[in-house]
Amino acid sequence: MKEKNQKESAEGNIEENIEKELNENKATHAEVSDEDKIAEVSDEEKITDLEDRLLRSAAEIENIRKRAEKERAEAYKVGISIFVKDFVPVLDNLQRALGSIKTSEEINYDSFVEGITATEKDITSLLERHGIKQINPINEKFDPLFHEALFETPSKDHEPGFVTQVIDLGYILDKRLIRPAKVGVSSKK
Q1: Please, what are the averages of pLDDT over each run of 10 residues along the chain (189 residues)?
Q2: What is the C-alpha separation between 118 and 113, in angstroms, rounded?
Q3: Is the full-model pTM beyond 0.90?
Q4: Which CATH number among 2.60.40.1120, 3.30.70.1230, 1.20.1440.230, 2.30.22.10 corresponds to the domain 132-189?
Q5: Which residues contact 51 (CB under 8 A, 6 or more apart)?
Q6: In the chain, which residues fall in CATH 2.30.22.10?
Q7: H-type alpha helices, the chain
């Protein structure tokens, strides 16, 4: 009987131990589940925070782009206004010359040509003050980057591919082409 009681006691202990372990596992599992929920909420908060940061960064980039565009437009206006301010006196001289021809009965062509030549020098000087240089490639080798060939002419004096005639001067601003020189180019006979 003693053995029977010991056996029953051992079985009871085993059952109690199993029940204890199950309860502990359930409690631990419940704690883990709560921790998982906390971790999930934490991850969701992190995601929300990152999304918010991303949206703010995108908005800031858009604001910087708009500000840069506005500043570029303002800089362009200031640059143009400086150029126009320098150009207006030249235009005034040209208008005076034309006005004097219209009002006088007798035209002095020599003084008129002299005035127009002086105005041309003023314009060239104005362009140079603003960094714009003329391209006059007469007798130079044809360069398609800076010249536009309008026609070819046979020439005894030049090798083929050289500029023999300049129709329109070209212009550059700090090595940037504004307008190519329009030229005639020598060809083989």
Answers
A1: 53 67 62 52 86 96 96 92 88 82 76 85 90 92 94 88 93 92 90
A2: 9
A3: no
A4: 2.30.22.10
A5: none
A6: 132-189
A7: 2-103, 109-129
